[in-house]
Design goal:
By secondary structure, this protein is mainly alpha-helical. The protein is 73% helix and 0% strand. Helix 1 packs antiparallel against helix 2, helix 3 packs across helix 5 and helix 3 packs across helix 6.
Length: 209
């Protein structure tokens, strides 16, 4: 096994932060089991980093990803056009009207579209894979239809990450440093906005009412 990718370190730190938060929660018994899902993602990343070590193998993985997501988006388009023959229990709620596709929930679909957009954009940068840009447009349309409010914020973060790579001079450590500083800046700005609006560092349910 080769050494873990540099991004594995901040991912483990992110997982550790969630574990500490769960332990500090007055409902630790409910919080800790939820960490299992996040831990499985970190483990999956570590396995994928070893299973797909080269750019060529990663390209094959991303192509498989966008084809699979495109199938779901095609079904979502059928939902929008009224050609869905699947017997949903209720087609009048936003859970259906926001085009969940095969994911069953538009929020889950929105999260997946973000990943698919980035994958398609990355592949379309390859001269032989320019046609992947068409998939990116389809995924952007599907993301818009889901009403996933955090989608644009996530894409903005991805653009910041891409710019960090572009101006890093090829240094992976510099990329991580730039992204970490941007992340801290974003969190600080969010905390400052929350405190100025509610006099609390953490938003409460009543804050959004």
């Amino acid at each position: 096994l080769h050494a873990p990718h540099l991004l594995f370190v901040p991912m483990v730190l992110y997982l550790a932060l969630h574990v500490l938060s769960a332990l500090a929660s007055p409902y630790a018994g409910h919080s800790l089991p939820a960490i299992g899902l996040l831990a499985s993602y970190v483990l999956l990343y570590a396995i994928a980093a070893h299973a797909f070590p080269s750019a060529k193998s990663l390209t094959s993985l991303l192509l498989a990803l966008i084809f699979a997501v495109a199938f779901s988006s095609a079904y979502a388009v059928a939902q929008r056009l009224g050609y869905d023959t699947f017997p949903w229990a209720d087609t009048t709620q936003d859970t259906y009207r926001n085009l969940p596709g095969t994911f069953g929930n538009p929020n889950v679909a929105g999260h997946t579209m973000i990943l698919a957009i980035l994958a398609a954009a990355y592949l379309s940068a390859n001269r032989r894979l320019r046609w992947c840009a068409v998939f990116a447009l389809v995924f952007v349309f599907h993301l818009y239809c889901t009403g996933h409010r955090a989608g644009l914020l996530a894409l903005a973060g991805s653009v910041a990450f891409a710019l960090a790579i572009k101006f890093s001079g090829g240094s992976a450590h510099r990329v991580v440093t730039i992204v970490t500083l941007l992340g801290l800046l974003a969190v600080s700005a969010g905390l400052a906005y929350t405190f100025s609006s509610s006099q609390r560092l953490a938003p409460l349910d009543s804050f959004w009412d």
